[in-house]
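We read letters as residues; the fold follows as tokens. A sample entry reads:
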Amino acid sequence: MASATEMRRERWLGVAGVVMIIAVIVAGIAVLSGHRNESAVPGPDPTAAVPSSPATTPQPSATPTPTPTPTVVPDAPTSPAPPSHPPAAAKPRRLTEKNLPTSQDLVWEQAADWRDEATYDGAGDDAPSLCLPQDSTGFDGVQAIFRRNFTLPDQGYATALIFSFETASQAEAIFQLMSSDASGCRGTLKKGGFDAKEPTPFYDVEIPEGITGKFLQISYQQRKQPDTTNETIGLVLAANRILFLSMVVQADHAVWSFPGSTDHDRLMHPMAQSLANAAERLTF
């Protein structure tokens, strides 16, 4: 009779055999099931027609928008501190007697015909012209006045005055006033007991740009006197400075051509070149 131990071993072997048989059956079923599923999926038909529509062009993938880099604004440069003692502004040059025309600047028939007579710091005691009778020292804004007298031996004389004003606008106003006095000189002369003709128009003088120069001539005579006098008045305006120049001669010594004239047999009036020379000296 078998022992209890052998009986347990035989029972264990029997159970293990049954388990192995069941595992083999299950594995077989799984393999058959896998073959069955593969055969059920239809493969591609090699005879199928190719579609006529063109293949769709693949669209590029969207490019991500880059995040803008913030702009860095540099700090504004620091302005240098103003100097504790700023330089003083340059002062304009003072008008002096050196700005007066000389006898070498005045023109006549021959060189050195004119001669210096006297120079004044101021307008002098007498009127510089019968056409400018008002007090020349009474102009508004005038800073300085200088005067020089000239002689033309046996023929006549000349008077030059130069003025400086506080502003260019004041100088221009007085320049216009002097121009008006010269143009209206006939009426002034008649009040003074002279017979006078209408003055010529103002003739412009070619001088550097930014400077205005012009002159006119008027003829007059003392009533009941035979001698006729020609006075030529020239004016120059340069910024805040004015030149007044008068040439007075007997009529028989004053036969000239004027700017724009076609009479080439006569010399150009000496006032034209005299003003050009004097304007250059006025602006020293």
Residues 4-40 form the longest helix (37 residues). The chain has a mean pLDDT of 77. The beta strands are 115-121, 142-152, 156-165, 194-196, 203-204, 212-222, 229-238, 241-250. Helices lie at 4-40, 168-183, 185-191, 270-282.
